[in-house]
Amino acid sequence: MSSDLKNFTEKTENVSNDPIYDTNWCDMPSEVKLECIGKMKFKERLSLRCAAKAVRSLVDSQKMEFNEGRFWGNNEELTLNFYNDDKRTFWKRAVDKNNAFELLNYIKKVGVFKNLYFSVGNSVADYKRFTTDDGLFTAKEIEFEQCNFDNVVAVLRKLDNGVESIKINHDSIVSDRLAEILAISHVQNATYWHIHRNFETDCLHKVAQMWIDKNAKVGSTFQVSNYAGGCFGKFLEHFDDRILSKNEKRVRIRTNNSDRHILLERGLDDIVGIDDLPEYFRLKVISAEMLESEYDDDCQKWIRKFDPEIYGSDNSFERFDDVHEYDDYDDAYHFYDDDDYDWEPYDDY
Question: Which CATH class is domain 63-163?
Fold first, then answer.
């Protein structure tokens, strides 16, 4: 008992001898502040950068990773949702577009996304600060669902290097607008991209021609579901002098690089017939040494990647919003509402 009392007394004396720090946030060195900011959640960082202008540059210098970012919008409002570890961690619905796009510009600076999703009808391209600021989205994969087409182009141009997958689910991409997309370096260099619900007949040969002109790397893949018909014939006509082999299901053409070819595959099986609409196509840059015996005959696998409904429902393709829950619903829902939170414009834009 006396031994326990002695130990307790010694610990108490040691505690009383420890220095007591009485330091305000503004007195801390920058490296300590950065450590603190790095442990903050996104909404806490927003609060800090708005409450203390002097530390704003430090907050802006710290990247933050998200599994997914989702942006919905129309002429009335813009909604933002961020996810991490299968949980929605940030929610914002803004009816003041100026504030919403200020926030969007900040997100471009600090967010590092595995997936980005846009379904924005009203044009962000008309918002000057969005198109002129130097912030860039950082994302591995990006998807557009029935966006205003100007938004598709504007956001693609606002992507940092490193995007691997681009999914465009759109039904109004006409030839001259397709040319705008093909001129974007991220599209030219993407490992995978697709257009779902296309009504033009020239997309296949234009993508293939872009790959030829840019000497696209082996493995580059483009897929399209086409409702107009005639894509296959247009492709054959355009590349008549480059065809190495062809049948009703595949066409192989040479490029300007002797090491690689381009293979056009047509999705045909027991479900999808040759006269059916939509028609499904996959373009791939392949090694010139690839044998016909190495072709993939399972078109269902790649068609499901962008149009699973053709083979029936598949729960694995459900949207996150149907299965995710808040860690703290009330806090996520009420944080940063226009009624109780004043987003302060950025001095550096």
Answer: alpha beta
